[in-house]
Amino acid sequence: MIVLHTVAETRAIEQSAMGSLPPRTLMERAGKAAAELALGMLLKNKQSASVLVLAGSGNNGGDAFETATHLAHAGAKVSVLSYAQAEKQPDDAKAALHIAHRSPARFRDVSSPEASLSAIRSTQWDLVIDGLFGIGLSKPITGDLETIINAVNTLTCPVLALDTPSGLNVDTGAISGGTDGIAIRATHTITFIAGKPGLYTLQGRDHAGEVTVASLDIDPQHYPARSCLLNEVALFSDALKPRLHDSHKGSYGNVAIVGGAQGMAGAVILAGRAALHAGAGRVYTVFLENTPRYDSIQPELMCRHAHDFDFSSAVLVVGPGLGQSRGAHDLLAKTLNARQPIVLDADAFNLIAAEPGLQQRVRNRREPTLMTPHPLEAARLLSISSNEVQANRIDAARKLANAFNATVILKGSGSIIAEPDVAGSKGMSYVNPTGNPALATAGTGDVLAGLCGALLAQGLLEKETALAATWLHGQAADELVRWGKGPIGLTANELMPVIRMLLNRIAANKTAHEK
Protein backbone atom coordinates (compact mmCIF):
# COMPACT_ATOMS: atom_id res chain seq x y z
CA MET A 1 0.00 0.00 0.00
CA ILE A 2 1.38 3.37 -1.02
CA VAL A 3 0.41 6.24 1.28
CA LEU A 4 0.57 9.68 -0.33
CA HIS A 5 1.72 12.70 1.66
CA THR A 6 1.83 16.39 0.85
CA VAL A 7 5.03 18.43 0.80
CA ALA A 8 4.22 19.87 4.23
CA GLU A 9 3.64 16.40 5.67
CA THR A 10 6.83 15.08 4.08
CA ARG A 11 8.86 17.97 5.53
CA ALA A 12 7.43 17.24 8.97
CA ILE A 13 8.29 13.53 8.66
CA GLU A 14 11.82 14.42 7.59
CA GLN A 15 12.38 16.83 10.45
CA SER A 16 11.02 14.39 12.99
CA ALA A 17 13.23 11.56 11.69
CA MET A 18 16.38 13.70 11.49
CA GLY A 19 16.11 14.50 15.18
CA SER A 20 17.20 10.96 16.04
CA LEU A 21 19.68 10.35 13.19
CA PRO A 22 23.29 11.43 12.57
CA PRO A 23 23.78 14.28 10.07
CA ARG A 24 23.57 13.36 6.38
CA THR A 25 21.93 9.99 7.09
CA LEU A 26 18.81 10.58 5.02
CA MET A 27 20.75 12.18 2.16
CA GLU A 28 23.16 9.24 2.08
CA ARG A 29 20.26 6.80 2.03
CA ALA A 30 18.57 8.76 -0.76
CA GLY A 31 21.72 8.78 -2.89
CA LYS A 32 22.25 5.06 -2.37
CA ALA A 33 18.64 4.21 -3.21
CA ALA A 34 18.73 6.36 -6.35
CA ALA A 35 22.05 4.85 -7.48
CA GLU A 36 20.72 1.32 -7.01
CA LEU A 37 17.67 2.13 -9.09
CA ALA A 38 19.84 3.80 -11.74
CA LEU A 39 22.09 0.76 -11.99
CA GLY A 40 19.03 -1.43 -12.42
CA MET A 41 17.80 0.83 -15.22
CA LEU A 42 21.13 0.60 -17.04
CA LEU A 43 20.97 -3.22 -17.11
CA LYS A 44 23.86 -3.68 -19.54
CA ASN A 45 27.25 -2.01 -19.60
CA LYS A 46 26.97 -0.78 -16.02
CA GLN A 47 30.73 -0.48 -15.86
CA SER A 48 30.94 1.75 -18.92
CA ALA A 49 27.58 3.52 -19.01
CA SER A 50 27.62 7.26 -19.60
CA VAL A 51 25.50 9.01 -16.97
CA LEU A 52 24.76 12.73 -16.81
CA VAL A 53 23.82 14.12 -13.39
CA LEU A 54 22.14 17.53 -13.13
CA ALA A 55 22.49 19.02 -9.64
CA GLY A 56 20.90 22.20 -8.35
CA SER A 57 20.95 24.12 -5.13
CA GLY A 58 19.46 22.79 -1.93
CA ASN A 59 19.08 19.27 -0.66
CA ASN A 60 17.83 17.94 -3.99
CA GLY A 61 21.23 18.86 -5.40
CA GLY A 62 22.79 17.10 -2.41
CA ASP A 63 20.85 13.94 -3.30
CA ALA A 64 22.20 14.26 -6.84
CA PHE A 65 25.79 14.55 -5.61
CA GLU A 66 25.36 11.47 -3.43
CA THR A 67 23.90 9.57 -6.38
CA ALA A 68 26.76 10.65 -8.64
CA THR A 69 29.33 9.49 -6.08
CA HIS A 70 27.76 6.03 -5.75
CA LEU A 71 27.48 5.58 -9.52
CA ALA A 72 31.03 6.74 -10.14
CA HIS A 73 32.38 4.28 -7.57
CA ALA A 74 30.29 1.55 -9.23
CA GLY A 75 32.21 2.16 -12.46
CA ALA A 76 29.82 4.29 -14.47
CA LYS A 77 31.23 7.20 -16.45
CA VAL A 78 29.56 10.01 -14.53
CA SER A 79 29.49 13.62 -15.66
CA VAL A 80 28.05 16.24 -13.32
CA LEU A 81 26.56 19.59 -14.27
CA SER A 82 26.41 21.46 -10.96
CA TYR A 83 24.36 24.64 -10.68
CA ALA A 84 24.77 24.83 -6.90
CA GLN A 85 26.45 27.73 -5.20
CA ALA A 86 28.59 25.94 -2.63
CA GLU A 87 28.51 28.78 -0.13
CA LYS A 88 24.69 28.81 -0.13
CA GLN A 89 24.21 25.05 0.10
CA PRO A 90 22.75 23.47 3.26
CA ASP A 91 25.40 21.70 5.32
CA ASP A 92 24.42 18.18 4.22
CA ALA A 93 24.39 19.15 0.54
CA LYS A 94 27.68 21.00 0.92
CA ALA A 95 29.29 17.86 2.36
CA ALA A 96 27.82 15.73 -0.45
CA LEU A 97 29.28 18.14 -3.03
CA HIS A 98 32.72 17.93 -1.39
CA ILE A 99 32.62 14.10 -1.43
CA ALA A 100 31.46 14.03 -5.07
CA HIS A 101 34.42 16.19 -6.08
CA ARG A 102 36.72 13.58 -4.55
CA SER A 103 35.01 10.72 -6.41
CA PRO A 104 35.74 9.57 -9.98
CA ALA A 105 32.80 11.67 -11.19
CA ARG A 106 33.75 14.40 -13.66
CA PHE A 107 32.42 17.93 -13.12
CA ARG A 108 31.76 19.69 -16.42
CA ASP A 109 31.86 23.39 -17.26
CA VAL A 110 28.57 25.22 -16.61
CA SER A 111 29.89 28.77 -16.73
CA SER A 112 27.46 29.65 -19.53
CA PRO A 113 24.31 28.20 -21.10
CA GLU A 114 26.36 27.38 -24.17
CA ALA A 115 28.82 25.35 -22.10
CA SER A 116 25.98 23.44 -20.44
CA LEU A 117 24.29 22.73 -23.74
CA SER A 118 27.57 21.60 -25.23
CA ALA A 119 28.03 19.13 -22.37
CA ILE A 120 24.47 17.80 -22.72
CA ARG A 121 24.88 17.30 -26.47
CA SER A 122 28.45 16.01 -26.37
CA THR A 123 27.65 12.40 -25.50
CA GLN A 124 25.14 9.68 -26.28
CA TRP A 125 23.99 9.37 -22.68
CA ASP A 126 22.72 6.08 -21.30
CA LEU A 127 20.95 7.85 -18.45
CA VAL A 128 20.27 11.38 -17.22
CA ILE A 129 19.60 12.03 -13.52
CA ASP A 130 17.58 15.12 -12.63
CA GLY A 131 18.45 16.72 -9.30
CA LEU A 132 17.89 20.35 -10.25
CA PHE A 133 14.83 21.23 -8.15
CA GLY A 134 13.09 19.29 -5.39
CA ILE A 135 9.63 19.26 -3.89
CA GLY A 136 9.95 22.78 -2.46
CA LEU A 137 9.86 24.61 -5.79
CA SER A 138 7.02 27.14 -5.84
CA LYS A 139 7.80 29.34 -8.85
CA PRO A 140 8.30 28.76 -12.57
CA ILE A 141 11.70 27.73 -13.86
CA THR A 142 13.12 30.46 -16.07
CA GLY A 143 16.40 31.64 -17.54
CA ASP A 144 19.36 29.35 -18.12
CA LEU A 145 17.86 26.37 -16.32
CA GLU A 146 14.76 26.56 -18.48
CA THR A 147 17.09 26.23 -21.47
CA ILE A 148 18.80 23.24 -19.84
CA ILE A 149 15.51 21.48 -19.17
CA ASN A 150 14.34 22.07 -22.73
CA ALA A 151 17.55 20.43 -23.95
CA VAL A 152 17.17 17.42 -21.64
CA ASN A 153 13.59 16.92 -22.78
CA THR A 154 14.82 16.42 -26.35
CA LEU A 155 17.07 13.50 -25.37
CA THR A 156 15.94 9.94 -26.11
CA CYS A 157 17.68 8.20 -23.21
CA PRO A 158 15.98 7.31 -19.88
CA VAL A 159 15.70 10.14 -17.36
CA LEU A 160 15.56 9.47 -13.61
CA ALA A 161 14.15 12.30 -11.49
CA LEU A 162 15.12 12.56 -7.83
CA ASP A 163 12.10 13.10 -5.56
CA THR A 164 10.18 14.90 -8.32
CA PRO A 165 10.76 15.94 -11.93
CA SER A 166 12.11 19.47 -11.68
CA GLY A 167 9.27 21.92 -12.20
CA LEU A 168 6.41 19.62 -11.12
CA ASN A 169 4.27 20.46 -8.10
CA VAL A 170 4.02 17.16 -6.22
CA ASP A 171 0.98 18.25 -4.23
CA THR A 172 -1.17 18.92 -7.30
CA GLY A 173 0.51 17.42 -10.37
CA ALA A 174 0.56 20.84 -12.05
CA ILE A 175 3.67 22.35 -13.63
CA SER A 176 4.86 25.44 -11.77
CA GLY A 177 4.00 28.39 -13.94
CA GLY A 178 0.97 26.77 -15.57
CA THR A 179 0.81 26.78 -19.35
CA ASP A 180 3.97 28.90 -19.51
CA GLY A 181 5.92 26.62 -17.17
CA ILE A 182 8.29 23.80 -17.90
CA ALA A 183 9.26 20.57 -16.16
CA ILE A 184 11.60 17.66 -16.75
CA ARG A 185 9.88 14.84 -18.62
CA ALA A 186 11.26 11.83 -16.76
CA THR A 187 10.84 8.18 -17.65
CA HIS A 188 11.35 7.24 -13.98
CA THR A 189 11.07 9.04 -10.65
CA ILE A 190 12.36 7.91 -7.28
CA THR A 191 10.57 9.85 -4.58
CA PHE A 192 11.87 9.89 -1.02
CA ILE A 193 10.24 9.35 2.38
CA ALA A 194 6.70 8.98 1.02
CA GLY A 195 4.67 8.93 -2.16
CA LYS A 196 3.40 12.30 -3.37
CA PRO A 197 -0.06 12.71 -4.96
CA GLY A 198 1.07 15.02 -7.76
CA LEU A 199 3.27 12.31 -9.24
CA TYR A 200 0.16 10.32 -10.12
CA THR A 201 -2.38 12.89 -11.31
CA LEU A 202 -2.79 15.65 -13.89
CA GLN A 203 0.57 16.38 -15.59
CA GLY A 204 2.40 14.17 -13.13
CA ARG A 205 1.50 11.12 -15.18
CA ASP A 206 3.29 12.58 -18.23
CA HIS A 207 6.32 13.90 -16.37
CA ALA A 208 7.07 11.43 -13.57
CA GLY A 209 6.99 8.21 -15.59
CA GLU A 210 7.38 5.06 -13.51
CA VAL A 211 7.44 6.00 -9.84
CA THR A 212 9.42 4.26 -7.09
CA VAL A 213 8.95 5.21 -3.43
CA ALA A 214 12.03 4.96 -1.19
CA SER A 215 11.07 5.33 2.48
CA LEU A 216 14.75 5.70 3.51
CA ASP A 217 14.07 3.32 6.39
CA ILE A 218 12.32 6.01 8.42
CA ASP A 219 10.54 4.59 11.45
CA PRO A 220 6.73 4.53 10.97
CA GLN A 221 6.28 6.48 14.21
CA HIS A 222 7.35 9.65 12.38
CA TYR A 223 4.46 9.44 9.88
CA PRO A 224 1.09 11.15 10.45
CA ALA A 225 -2.26 9.39 10.08
CA ARG A 226 -2.89 8.58 6.46
CA SER A 227 -5.53 10.53 4.56
CA CYS A 228 -4.59 9.82 0.93
CA LEU A 229 -3.69 6.51 -0.73
CA LEU A 230 -2.76 5.25 -4.18
CA ASN A 231 -5.60 3.06 -5.41
CA GLU A 232 -4.80 -0.63 -5.80
CA VAL A 233 -6.61 -3.97 -6.06
CA ALA A 234 -6.00 -4.83 -2.40
CA LEU A 235 -8.20 -1.90 -1.36
CA PHE A 236 -11.34 -3.41 -2.92
CA SER A 237 -10.72 -7.07 -3.81
CA ASP A 238 -12.31 -8.39 -0.61
CA ALA A 239 -15.61 -6.84 -1.72
CA LEU A 240 -15.64 -8.83 -4.98
CA LYS A 241 -17.20 -12.00 -3.64
CA PRO A 242 -16.77 -15.29 -5.52
CA ARG A 243 -20.08 -16.39 -6.98
CA LEU A 244 -21.88 -19.35 -5.45
CA HIS A 245 -23.33 -22.11 -7.61
CA ASP A 246 -26.61 -21.64 -5.75
CA SER A 247 -27.38 -18.18 -7.09
CA HIS A 248 -29.60 -16.58 -9.71
CA LYS A 249 -30.03 -13.24 -11.50
CA GLY A 250 -31.83 -11.82 -8.48
CA SER A 251 -28.69 -12.44 -6.44
CA TYR A 252 -26.78 -9.75 -8.30
CA GLY A 253 -29.16 -6.84 -8.27
CA ASN A 254 -31.05 -4.64 -10.69
CA VAL A 255 -29.62 -1.56 -12.37
CA ALA A 256 -31.58 1.14 -14.18
CA ILE A 257 -29.75 3.53 -16.50
CA VAL A 258 -31.85 6.70 -16.70
CA GLY A 259 -31.37 9.21 -19.52
CA GLY A 260 -31.77 8.98 -23.26
CA ALA A 261 -33.14 12.29 -24.51
CA GLN A 262 -33.68 12.76 -28.23
CA GLY A 263 -30.51 11.86 -30.17
CA MET A 264 -28.62 10.66 -27.08
CA ALA A 265 -29.84 7.08 -26.65
CA GLY A 266 -26.32 5.76 -27.21
CA ALA A 267 -25.13 6.95 -23.80
CA VAL A 268 -27.82 4.93 -22.03
CA ILE A 269 -27.09 1.85 -24.14
CA LEU A 270 -23.34 2.05 -23.45
CA ALA A 271 -23.87 2.39 -19.71
CA GLY A 272 -26.37 -0.47 -19.78
CA ARG A 273 -24.03 -2.78 -21.66
CA ALA A 274 -21.26 -1.95 -19.21
CA ALA A 275 -23.51 -2.83 -16.27
CA LEU A 276 -24.33 -6.20 -17.86
CA HIS A 277 -20.67 -7.00 -18.55
CA ALA A 278 -19.83 -6.04 -14.94
CA GLY A 279 -22.20 -8.63 -13.54
CA ALA A 280 -25.52 -6.96 -12.72
CA GLY A 281 -28.37 -9.49 -12.62
CA ARG A 282 -30.83 -7.37 -14.58
CA VAL A 283 -30.27 -4.09 -16.40
CA TYR A 284 -33.00 -1.68 -17.47
CA THR A 285 -32.35 1.14 -19.91
CA VAL A 286 -34.84 3.87 -19.05
CA PHE A 287 -35.47 6.53 -21.70
CA LEU A 288 -36.87 10.00 -21.38
CA GLU A 289 -37.87 9.99 -25.06
CA ASN A 290 -38.17 7.62 -28.02
CA THR A 291 -37.74 4.34 -26.16
CA PRO A 292 -36.29 1.69 -28.50
CA ARG A 293 -37.95 -1.74 -28.55
CA TYR A 294 -34.64 -3.42 -27.78
CA ASP A 295 -30.89 -3.21 -28.31
CA SER A 296 -30.07 -5.45 -31.27
CA ILE A 297 -26.47 -5.87 -30.10
CA GLN A 298 -27.33 -6.50 -26.45
CA PRO A 299 -30.92 -7.82 -26.37
CA GLU A 300 -30.49 -8.71 -22.69
CA LEU A 301 -31.09 -5.04 -21.90
CA MET A 302 -34.71 -4.29 -20.99
CA CYS A 303 -35.80 -0.99 -22.53
CA ARG A 304 -38.39 1.06 -20.65
CA HIS A 305 -39.97 4.50 -20.87
CA ALA A 306 -39.23 6.72 -17.87
CA HIS A 307 -42.92 7.46 -17.16
CA ASP A 308 -43.66 3.77 -16.71
CA PHE A 309 -40.70 2.74 -14.58
CA ASP A 310 -40.64 1.99 -10.85
CA PHE A 311 -37.49 3.75 -9.62
CA SER A 312 -37.66 1.96 -6.29
CA SER A 313 -36.85 -1.34 -8.00
CA ALA A 314 -33.19 -0.84 -8.97
CA VAL A 315 -29.88 0.89 -8.30
CA LEU A 316 -30.07 4.06 -10.39
CA VAL A 317 -27.53 5.51 -12.81
CA VAL A 318 -28.87 8.92 -13.77
CA GLY A 319 -27.55 11.36 -16.35
CA PRO A 320 -26.15 9.62 -19.46
CA GLY A 321 -27.73 11.39 -22.43
CA LEU A 322 -30.40 12.91 -20.16
CA GLY A 323 -30.34 16.40 -21.64
CA GLN A 324 -31.35 19.57 -19.81
CA SER A 325 -35.02 19.95 -20.68
CA ARG A 326 -37.82 20.50 -18.18
CA GLY A 327 -38.70 16.84 -18.55
CA ALA A 328 -35.10 15.89 -17.75
CA HIS A 329 -35.19 18.11 -14.66
CA ASP A 330 -38.39 16.50 -13.37
CA LEU A 331 -37.10 13.01 -14.03
CA LEU A 332 -33.87 13.74 -12.13
CA ALA A 333 -35.86 15.13 -9.19
CA LYS A 334 -37.96 11.96 -9.14
CA THR A 335 -34.91 9.70 -9.07
CA LEU A 336 -33.30 11.71 -6.28
CA ASN A 337 -36.36 10.99 -4.14
CA ALA A 338 -36.09 7.25 -4.70
CA ARG A 339 -34.72 5.33 -1.75
CA GLN A 340 -32.10 3.55 -3.79
CA PRO A 341 -28.34 3.92 -4.28
CA ILE A 342 -27.70 6.37 -7.09
CA VAL A 343 -24.85 7.15 -9.48
CA LEU A 344 -25.00 10.70 -10.86
CA ASP A 345 -23.27 11.44 -14.15
CA ALA A 346 -23.20 13.72 -17.18
CA ASP A 347 -26.29 15.91 -17.65
CA ALA A 348 -27.41 15.27 -14.09
CA PHE A 349 -24.58 17.57 -13.02
CA ASN A 350 -25.60 20.36 -15.35
CA LEU A 351 -29.12 20.30 -13.97
CA ILE A 352 -27.96 20.11 -10.35
CA ALA A 353 -25.46 22.94 -10.82
CA ALA A 354 -28.21 25.19 -12.14
CA GLU A 355 -30.71 24.69 -9.30
CA PRO A 356 -30.16 25.00 -5.53
CA GLY A 357 -33.25 22.88 -4.92
CA LEU A 358 -31.72 19.88 -6.66
CA GLN A 359 -28.46 20.48 -4.83
CA GLN A 360 -30.32 20.28 -1.52
CA ARG A 361 -32.04 17.06 -2.58
CA VAL A 362 -28.66 15.46 -3.24
CA ARG A 363 -27.31 16.62 0.12
CA ASN A 364 -30.37 15.32 1.97
CA ARG A 365 -30.20 11.80 0.58
CA ARG A 366 -29.56 9.03 3.09
CA GLU A 367 -28.97 6.31 0.52
CA PRO A 368 -25.53 5.86 -1.11
CA THR A 369 -24.72 8.61 -3.60
CA LEU A 370 -21.82 8.35 -6.05
CA MET A 371 -20.86 11.21 -8.39
CA THR A 372 -18.60 10.85 -11.44
CA PRO A 373 -17.89 14.36 -12.84
CA HIS A 374 -15.18 15.38 -15.26
CA PRO A 375 -13.34 18.64 -14.43
CA LEU A 376 -15.75 20.97 -16.26
CA GLU A 377 -18.77 19.37 -14.57
CA ALA A 378 -16.99 19.60 -11.21
CA ALA A 379 -16.30 23.27 -11.89
CA ARG A 380 -19.98 23.97 -12.53
CA LEU A 381 -20.98 22.20 -9.33
CA LEU A 382 -18.43 24.21 -7.32
CA SER A 383 -19.08 27.52 -9.16
CA ILE A 384 -15.41 27.86 -10.11
CA SER A 385 -13.44 27.43 -13.34
CA SER A 386 -12.17 24.11 -14.64
CA ASN A 387 -8.64 25.53 -14.36
CA GLU A 388 -9.22 26.01 -10.64
CA VAL A 389 -10.41 22.41 -10.36
CA GLN A 390 -7.34 21.14 -12.16
CA ALA A 391 -5.02 23.34 -10.09
CA ASN A 392 -5.77 21.13 -7.07
CA ARG A 393 -7.73 18.06 -8.05
CA ILE A 394 -7.70 16.41 -4.63
CA ASP A 395 -8.98 19.55 -2.95
CA ALA A 396 -11.73 19.95 -5.56
CA ALA A 397 -12.85 16.33 -5.19
CA ARG A 398 -12.95 16.67 -1.39
CA LYS A 399 -14.98 19.88 -1.62
CA LEU A 400 -17.50 18.14 -3.87
CA ALA A 401 -17.73 15.14 -1.55
CA ASN A 402 -18.45 17.39 1.42
CA ALA A 403 -20.77 19.75 -0.45
CA PHE A 404 -23.03 16.90 -1.61
CA ASN A 405 -22.44 14.27 1.08
CA ALA A 406 -21.37 11.88 -1.65
CA THR A 407 -18.46 9.75 -2.74
CA VAL A 408 -16.86 11.46 -5.75
CA ILE A 409 -14.83 10.19 -8.67
CA LEU A 410 -13.21 13.24 -10.29
CA LYS A 411 -12.27 11.89 -13.69
CA GLY A 412 -9.10 12.74 -15.58
CA SER A 413 -5.46 11.72 -15.72
CA GLY A 414 -5.02 10.18 -12.29
CA SER A 415 -8.69 10.17 -11.29
CA ILE A 416 -9.38 11.23 -7.70
CA ILE A 417 -11.75 9.34 -5.41
CA ALA A 418 -12.89 11.32 -2.36
CA GLU A 419 -15.13 10.49 0.58
CA PRO A 420 -16.95 13.13 2.62
CA ASP A 421 -15.87 14.01 6.14
CA VAL A 422 -17.84 12.16 8.81
CA ALA A 423 -18.35 13.31 12.40
CA GLY A 424 -15.32 15.58 12.31
CA SER A 425 -13.12 12.89 10.79
CA LYS A 426 -11.45 13.79 7.49
CA GLY A 427 -12.64 11.67 4.61
CA MET A 428 -10.09 9.56 2.78
CA SER A 429 -8.99 10.43 -0.73
CA TYR A 430 -7.36 8.18 -3.31
CA VAL A 431 -5.44 8.71 -6.54
CA ASN A 432 -6.02 6.13 -9.26
CA PRO A 433 -2.90 4.99 -11.16
CA THR A 434 -4.55 3.11 -14.03
CA GLY A 435 -5.73 4.45 -17.38
CA ASN A 436 -4.24 6.17 -20.41
CA PRO A 437 -5.21 8.48 -23.29
CA ALA A 438 -7.28 5.70 -24.89
CA LEU A 439 -10.04 6.81 -22.51
CA ALA A 440 -10.13 10.26 -24.14
CA THR A 441 -13.03 9.35 -26.39
CA ALA A 442 -16.81 9.62 -26.28
CA GLY A 443 -18.68 7.05 -24.22
CA THR A 444 -15.99 5.95 -21.79
CA GLY A 445 -17.61 7.99 -19.03
CA ASP A 446 -20.90 6.19 -19.68
CA VAL A 447 -19.10 2.88 -19.32
CA LEU A 448 -17.67 3.99 -15.95
CA ALA A 449 -21.12 5.05 -14.74
CA GLY A 450 -22.67 1.73 -15.75
CA LEU A 451 -19.85 -0.16 -14.08
CA CYS A 452 -20.43 1.78 -10.85
CA GLY A 453 -24.13 0.93 -10.96
CA ALA A 454 -23.43 -2.77 -11.43
CA LEU A 455 -21.03 -2.94 -8.49
CA LEU A 456 -23.44 -1.10 -6.20
CA ALA A 457 -26.19 -3.51 -7.25
CA GLN A 458 -23.99 -6.44 -6.27
CA GLY A 459 -23.64 -5.11 -2.76
CA LEU A 460 -20.41 -3.12 -2.78
CA LEU A 461 -20.27 -0.03 -0.60
CA GLU A 462 -19.81 3.42 -2.16
CA LYS A 463 -16.07 3.56 -1.47
CA GLU A 464 -15.46 0.01 -2.66
CA THR A 465 -17.48 0.70 -5.79
CA ALA A 466 -15.61 3.89 -6.59
CA LEU A 467 -12.19 2.33 -6.05
CA ALA A 468 -12.98 -0.85 -7.98
CA ALA A 469 -14.74 0.84 -10.88
CA THR A 470 -12.06 3.48 -11.39
CA TRP A 471 -9.23 0.94 -11.23
CA LEU A 472 -10.99 -1.58 -13.53
CA HIS A 473 -11.99 1.10 -16.05
CA GLY A 474 -8.41 2.37 -16.33
CA GLN A 475 -6.82 -1.07 -16.26
CA ALA A 476 -9.04 -2.24 -19.11
CA ALA A 477 -7.66 0.60 -21.22
CA ASP A 478 -4.12 -0.29 -20.14
CA GLU A 479 -4.63 -3.93 -21.15
CA LEU A 480 -6.00 -2.95 -24.55
CA VAL A 481 -3.06 -0.66 -25.24
CA ARG A 482 -0.71 -3.44 -24.15
CA TRP A 483 -2.39 -5.68 -26.72
CA GLY A 484 -1.80 -3.09 -29.45
CA LYS A 485 -5.42 -1.90 -29.64
CA GLY A 486 -4.88 1.73 -28.67
CA PRO A 487 -4.60 4.37 -27.49
CA ILE A 488 -5.54 5.92 -30.83
CA GLY A 489 -8.97 4.88 -32.02
CA LEU A 490 -10.04 2.80 -29.04
CA THR A 491 -13.82 2.85 -28.53
CA ALA A 492 -15.84 2.68 -25.35
CA ASN A 493 -17.47 -0.62 -26.35
CA GLU A 494 -14.07 -2.33 -26.39
CA LEU A 495 -13.59 -1.71 -22.66
CA MET A 496 -16.48 -3.90 -21.54
CA PRO A 497 -15.24 -7.44 -22.23
CA VAL A 498 -11.86 -6.53 -20.72
CA ILE A 499 -13.53 -5.18 -17.58
CA ARG A 500 -15.41 -8.48 -17.35
CA MET A 501 -12.15 -10.41 -17.74
CA LEU A 502 -10.46 -8.37 -14.99
CA LEU A 503 -13.39 -8.81 -12.61
CA ASN A 504 -13.30 -12.56 -13.09
CA ARG A 505 -9.53 -12.66 -12.73
CA ILE A 506 -9.66 -10.84 -9.38
CA ALA A 507 -12.50 -13.06 -8.14
CA ALA A 508 -10.67 -16.21 -9.27
CA ASN A 509 -7.48 -15.14 -7.50
CA LYS A 510 -9.46 -14.45 -4.35
CA THR A 511 -11.12 -17.89 -4.56
CA ALA A 512 -7.77 -19.61 -5.07
CA HIS A 513 -6.29 -17.71 -2.12
CA GLU A 514 -9.19 -18.69 0.15
CA LYS A 515 -8.78 -22.36 -0.76
Describe the protein in words.
There is one protein chain. The protein is an alpha/beta fold and about 525 residues long. It is built from 17 helices and 17 strands. The chain has helices at about 5-20, 25-40, 60-75, 90-100, 115-120, 145-150, 205-210, 265-275, 325-335, 345-355, 355-365, 375-380, 385-390, 395-405, 445-455, 460-480, 495-515, and strands at about 50-55, 75-80, 105, 125-130, 160, 190, 210-215, 230, 255-260, 280-285, 300-305, 315-320, 340-345, 370, 405-410, 415-420, 430. The protein starts with 6 loop residues before the first helix and ends with a helix.
Condensed summary:
The protein is of the alpha/beta class and 515 residues long. The chain has helices spanning 7-18, 25-42, 58-73, 91-101, 113-121, 143-152, 204-208, 265-277, 326-337, 347-354, 356-364, 375-382, 386-391, 393-404, 444-457, 462-482, 495-514, and strands spanning 50-55, 77-82, 106-107, 127-131, 159-162, 188-192, 210-214, 228-230, 254-259, 282-287, 302-305, 315-318, 342-344, 369-371, 407-410, 416-418, 429-431. α3 packs parallel to α4.
Q: State the shape.
A: elongated
Distance between the termini: 24 Å
Instruction: Catalogue the unreliable spans.
Output: none
> So, the CATH homologous superfamily of the largest domain?
Ribokinase
Q: Tell me the strand percentage band.
A: 5-15%
Share of helix, binned:
25-40%
Number of helices: 17
For the record, the count of structural domains works out to 2
The chain-level mean pLDDT equals 95
- How many DSSP E strands? 17
Radius of gyration: 26 Å
What's the CATH C level of the largest domain?
Alpha Beta
